[in-house]
Automatic annotation (TrEMBL):
Belongs to the bacterial solute-binding protein 2 family. Coiled coil: none annotated. This is Substrate-binding domain-containing protein. Pfam families: Peripla_BP_4 (PF13407). Residues 56-312 form the Periplasmic binding protein domain. Keywords: Signal. The lineage of its organism: Bacteria, Bacillati, Actinomycetota, Actinomycetes, Micrococcales.
C-alpha cells in the first residue's frame, strides 16, 4: 500500500471510530444521565426515620391570645409526631425571672436542646448564652436575643415582610387610584415588630403612589382593637382600605366596623387566624385578605432541634448543616388560596 493511501485509510478508520463513540454516547450515556438525575430528584430523605433519642426543653410566654396559644400547641403536636423526641414543657409565663429559672433548670437537667420563645429577648440572652456554653443548642423563636451567639438557630416570622405583603395587596386592589384613603391599625407602637410592620407597609404603598392617610395603634387585644378602630372610623368619614396588623385584635376591629355600619372599604388582616380565613372564604364581610405571621415557628424549631442533636441537616438544602437563621415568609391569604392555609391557621 502506498504512503498516501495508507494515510487516507488511517484517517477514515479514525473517523469511523470517533463516529462509533459519538453514536454510543448518544444512545447510552444520555439515558444513564437522565436516570441518574431522576434518581437524585426522587431521592427521599431519611430525616423522619427514628434516630437518637432527643430531649428538648420548651419554654414560651403565657398563651394570652390565640397566636401565642397556637405557638405552644403546634410545638407540642410536632414533638408528638416523633417517637425519638421527648418534649419537656415548662409552664408558660410572662414572668422574665421565672422563664430564666426554667432555662437554668433545663441546663442543670442536661437536656439535648432548648426551644425558647422568650417573653423578652434581651432579658433571656444571658441565660441562653449560658446554655450554649454548656453545649446545649438553643433554638430562639420569634423574639430575638440581643446577641446572636446566644442561639444556634433563630426561627423568625417576617414583620417587615408582613407590611410589604399587605401594602402590595392593597396597591394591586386599588389599581392606581392615587387619591385612595388607606388606614392602618397597628399593634403596640413601642415594639420593634410593630415598627417593622409599619415601615414595610409604608414602603410598599409608596411604590404605587399611596400613603397612610389615617393611623391608630391598638394593643393586640380585642378590646384595644375595638377602641382603636372606633376612633379611626370617627376620624375618617371615607376610606378605601384598612390594614389591621393583628387578627386577634381584629375581632374588636370588626365589632367597631359593624357598630359604625361602615362597608365602603375592604380590610386586610394580619397573622392569619382561622376566624379571619373563614370570613375570607365566605366573602361576606369587609375582610378580603390576611397576611400570615406563622404560628408554626415553634413547631419548626422543634424539628430543627431534633435535626441538630441527631447530626442531620435540612434535606432540601445542599448544605450539610442546619442554617443559622430561618425567616418564614409572609404570604397573603385570599379567597383564591385560603384552603391552602386553613390547616395551619390559629384560633383567635
Amino acid at each position: 500500500m502506498s504512503a498516501p493511501l495508507r494515510r487516507r485509510h488511517l484517517v477514515l478508520a479514525g473517523a469511523a471510530a470517533s463516529l462509533a463513540l459519538l453514536v454510543a454516547g448518544c444512545t447510552s450515556n444520555q439515558p444513564k444521565d437522565t436516570a441518574t438525575q431522576a434518581a437524585q430528584t426522587q431521592a427521599v430523605s431519611d430525616n423522619d426515620a427514628p434516630g437518637k433519642q432527643v430531649t428538648i426543653g420548651f419554654s414560651a410566654p403565657a398563651a394570652d391570645h390565640g397566636w401565642m396559644s397556637s405557638i405552644t400547641k403546634s410545638a407540642v403536636a410536632e414533638a408528638g409526631k416523633y417517637p425519638d423526641v421527648k418534649l419537656v414543657q415548662a409552664e408558660a409565663t410572662n414572668d422574665v425571672n421565672l422563664q430564666i429559672s426554667q432555662i437554668e433548670s433545663f441546663i442543670n437537667d442536661k437536656v439535648d436542646a432548648i426551644v425558647l420563645l422568650p417573653f423578652d429577648g434581651a432579658a433571656l440572652t444571658e441565660v441562653a448564652t449560658k446554655a450554649m456554653r454548656a453545649g446545649i443548642p438553643v433554638i430562639n423563636v420569634d423574639r430575638e436575643f440581643s446577641d446572636p451567639n446566644a442561639a444556634r438557630v433563630t426561627v423568625l416570622g417576617d414583620n417587615y415582610g408582613m407590611g410589604v405583603s399587605a401594602g402590595k395587596y392593597i396597591c394591586d386592589q386599588l389599581g392606581g387610584k392615587t387619591d385612595a384613603k388607606v388606614a392602618e391599625i397597628a399593634g403596640i407602637d413601642s415594639l420593634p415588630l410593630t415598627q417593622d410592620r409599619s415601615k414595610g407597609f409604608k414602603d410598599a404603598l409608596a411604590t404605587c403612589g399611596l400613603s397612610v392617610s389615617n393611623r391608630v395603634a391598638a394593643d393586640f387585644t380585642v378590646q384595644g382593637g375595638e377602641e382603636a378602630a372606633a376612633n379611626l372610623l370617627q376620624a375618617a368619614p371615607k376610606l378605601d382600605a384598612i390594614w389591621n396588623h393583628d387578627d386577634d385584635q381584629g375581632v374588636g376591629v370588626m365589632a367597631a366596623i359593624e357598630n359604625a355600619g361602615r362597608h365602603e372599604f375592604f380590610m386586610v388582616g394580619g397573622a392569619g387566624s382561622k376566624q379571619v380565613m373563614n370570613q375570607i372564604k365566605a366573602d361576606n364581610t369587609v375582610i378580603k385578605a390576611t397576611v400570615i405571621y406563622p404560628s408554626t415557628q415553634a413547631a419548626d424549631a422543634v424539628r430543627l432541634a431534633r435535626l441538630l442533636v441527631q447530626g442531620k441537616a435540612m434535606s432540601d438544602l445542599v448544605e450539610v448543616e442546619v442554617p443559622r437563621k430561618v425567616q418564614l415568609y409572609a404570604p397573603v391569604v385570599t379567597k383564591a388560596n385560603v384552603d391552602k392555609y386553613l390547616p395551619t391557621a390559629f384560633e383567635s
